[in-house]
C-alpha cells in the first residue's frame, strides 16, 4: 500500500491553464484517499437471516420430513382415533361459531361439519335464531338427528333435548298434582290450546271453569291441572276447572283478596281474583242502592273484595264490598277508605260469624244435654264439666 501511494504521488500533474491558474498559487500534487468498507449491525443481521432462510429452503427441498416426530399417515390416524361419536341420536358438545338466517354452524371438535337449523333451536316457533339465545360463543349440548348426504354435514337439534325434559317435567307435575299456569295460544270448537312447559296442551271446554270462547281466552294465562300426560301419543290434556276448585278450596269465607274488574253486567261485576272469576253482585257493592254499576266500577279497576261464598262444583265465587264499608254508602262516596279499612272490617265480620255459629251450637246443646258436651264462653266445644253435669241432673 505504501509503495502504491509513493508511486501515485510521484506522478506529475498537468499544469493549469493561464486563465484558471491564480497568480502566486503554487502547484501541489493531488492526494488519493484509500480505505475499506465496514458493515453495519443491521446489515450483519440481514445477512445472517438470509443465510438461515437459504439453509431452511434447502432442507425443505432435500429432506422435508427431517425433525418431524410422525408422518402424515400418523396424523391421519390420530384424527380418526380422537374423532367424536357422530351416530344419530347421540349427544355432543359444541360451540356456536356462526349464525345465519336459517340456523347456526356448530364447532364440535371434529372433522365433520355440524349445523343447527332454526326449527330445531327450541320448542317455540321463532323467526330468528337469536330469539332462542343462539349466539356465537355459546357452548351447549346438542343431539345429532340427521346427516346431509350431499356434503356429510351433521344436523343437530336442541329441540329434541328440550322436548324430552319438558315431558319429564309434565309427568313430575302430574304426580305432584300441583296447579300450574298456561298461556292460551289458540283454540277450536272443542277447547283451547295452552302452552305448558314449552309444549302445546289441550284444555277441553268442559274443563274450563267459566263459559267463554277461545277468542276471549286468547293470550291469557289460566290456572291448570294435569289430566293426561302421554308422550308416546303426544297427548297432553289439562283442566282449568280442577285448578280453580283447588284454588277456591283455599278461600275461606270472610277472607279479603285483591281483584281486578274484568267486565260489567247489569246484575253485577265479574272480578278476577288471581285466576278465579268471582261475581260481585250489584246488591253486594254497597249498603246504598247502586243504580248504575259503571258509576262505581270500571273494567281494569283494582279493588279489595271479601269472599262471601264459593261453589266448588260449579266453580262460582260470590264477592262483596258491601261488608267492607265502615259506614253505609262508603263504597260509592269514598271507595279508598273502604279498601284501607277492608282487613279491619273483614275481621269484625268474621267475629260476628263466629259468634253466630257459637250461639247456634249452644242452642243445639241446650236441647241435647245427653251428648255430654258443652260450649265455653270462647265458643269452643268440649266435655261437659262435673259442675255442669250436677246442675243439669238437679
Features:
394 residues, alpha+beta, OB fold (Dihydrolipoamide Acetyltransferase, E2P), 5-stranded antiparallel sheet, 10 helices, elongated, disordered N terminus, disordered C terminus
Short description:
With 394 residues, the protein is of the alpha+beta class. The chain has helices at residues 2-9, 41-62, 72-81, 159-176, 214-217, 240-249, 330-333, 335-340, 342-366, 386-393; strands spanning 91-99, 103-107, 114-117, 139-148, 153-157, 180-187, 191-196, 199-204, 221-230, 235-239, 256-265, 268-272, 277-281, 302-311, 316-320, 373-375, 381-383.
Task: Determine the fraction of residues in helical runs and give it as a percent range.
Answer: 25-40%
Strand order of the largest sheet: 1-2-3-5-4
* CATH homologous superfamily grouping of the domain at 252-340: Nucleic acid-binding proteins
Q: How much strand content do the residues show?
A: 25-35%
**Per the principal axes of the C-alpha atoms, what is the gross shape?**
elongated
Question: What is the C-level CATH assignment of the domain at 252-340?
Answer: Mainly Beta
Give unreliable regions as ranges. Answer: 1-34, 388-394
Protein name: Small ribosomal subunit protein bS1c
Keywords: Chloroplast, Plastid, Repeat, Ribonucleoprotein, Ribosomal protein, RNA-binding, Transit peptide
InterPro entries: NA-bd_OB-fold, Ribos_protein_bS1-like, S1_domain
Domain S1 motif: 89-159, 177-241, 254-322
Amino acid at each position: 500500500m505504501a509503495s502504491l501511494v509513493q508511486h501515485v504521488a510521484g506522478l506529475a500533474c498537468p499544469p493549469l491553464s493561464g486563465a484558471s491558474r491564480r497568480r502566486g498559487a503554487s502547484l501541489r500534487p493531488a492526494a488519493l484517499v484509500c480505505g475499506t468498507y465496514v458493515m453495519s449491525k443491521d446489515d450483519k443481521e440481514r445477512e445472517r437471516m438470509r443465510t438461515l432462510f437459504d439453509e431452511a429452503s434447502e432442507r425443505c427441498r432435500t429432506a422435508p420430513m427431517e425433525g418431524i416426530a410422525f408422518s402424515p399417515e400418523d396424523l391421519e390416524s390420530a384424527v380418526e382415533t380422537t374423532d367424536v361419536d357422530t351416530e344419530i341420536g347421540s349427544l355432543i358438545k359444541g360451540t356456536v361459531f356462526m349464525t345465519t338466517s336459517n340456523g347456526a354452524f356448530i364447532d364440535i371438535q371434529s372433522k365433520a361439519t355440524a349445523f343447527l337449523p332454526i326449527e330445531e333451536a327450541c320448542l317455540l316457533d321463532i323467526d330468528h335464531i337469536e330469539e332462542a339465545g343462539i349466539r356465537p360463543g355459546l357452548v351447549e349440548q346438542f343431539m345429532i338427528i340427521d346427516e346431509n348426504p350431499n356434503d356429510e354435514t351433521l344436523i343437530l337439534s336442541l329441540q329434541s333435548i328440550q322436548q324430552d325434559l319438558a315431558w319429564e317435567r309434565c309427568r313430575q307435575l302430574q304426580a305432584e298434582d300441583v296447579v300450574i299456569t298456561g298461556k292460551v295460544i289458540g283454540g277450536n270448537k272443542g277447547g283451547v290450546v295452552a302452552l305448558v312447559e314449552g309444549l302445546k296442551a289441550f284444555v277441553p271446554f268442559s274443563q274450563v271453569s267459566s263459559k267463554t270462547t277461545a277468542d276471549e281466552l286468547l293470550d291469557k294465562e289460566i290456572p291448570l291441572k294435569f289430566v293426561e300426560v302421554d308422550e308416546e301419543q303426544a297427548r297432553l290434556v289439562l283442566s282449568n276447572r280442577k285448578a280453580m276448585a283447588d284454588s277456591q278450596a283455599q278461600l275461606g269465607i270472610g277472607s279479603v283478596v285483591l281483584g281486578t274488574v274484568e267486565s260489567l253486567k247489569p246484575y253485577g261485576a265479574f272480578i278476577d281474583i288471581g285466576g278465579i272469576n268471582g261475581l260481585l253482585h250489584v246488591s253486594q257493592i254497597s249498603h246504598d242502592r247502586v243504580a248504575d254499576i259503571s258509576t262505581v266500577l270500571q273494567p281494569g279497576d283494582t279493588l279489595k273484595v271479601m269472599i262471601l261464598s264459593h261453589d266448588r262444583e260449579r266453580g262460582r265465587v260470590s264477592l262483596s264490598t258491601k261488608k267492607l264499608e265502615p259506614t253505609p254508602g262508603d263504597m260509592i262516596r269514598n271507595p279508598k277508605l273502604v279498601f284501607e279499612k277492608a282487613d279491619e272490617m273483614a275481621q269484625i265480620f268474621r267475629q260476628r260469624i263466629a259468634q253466630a255459629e257459637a250461639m247456634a251450637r249452644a242452642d243445639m246443646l241446650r236441647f241435647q244435654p245427653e251428648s255430654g258436651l258443652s260450649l265455653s264462653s270462647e265458643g269452643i266445644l268440649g266435655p261437659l264439666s262435673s259442675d255442669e253435669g250436677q246442675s243439669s241432673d238437679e
